[in-house]
UniProtKB/TrEMBL annotation:
Belongs to the FliP/MopC/SpaP family. This is Flagellar biosynthetic protein FliP. The gene is fliP_2. It is found in: Cell membrane. The chain crosses the membrane at residues 45-74.
Amino acid sequence: MRRLLSVAPVLLWLVTPLAFAQLPGITSQPLPGGGQSWSLPVQTLVFITSLTFIPAILLMMTSFTRIIIVFGLLRNALGTPSAPPN
């Protein structure tokens, strides 16, 4: 086991150039109208990133956040417990 742990980093070091020998996955092609067409991995990354920001944008655009904050302050001012007692 100890010998395997000492040989593993050397083997990983020897295999590393093979991982970098592939073609690049990020490509950009110019379109006739002057725009650009990105590769599918880049389009997927941008789409998933935009999906993560949608809830934050929704909260910023609505008054939901303000209403929740005001109700929380009102509950504290009235002395209502935030969780039911045991």
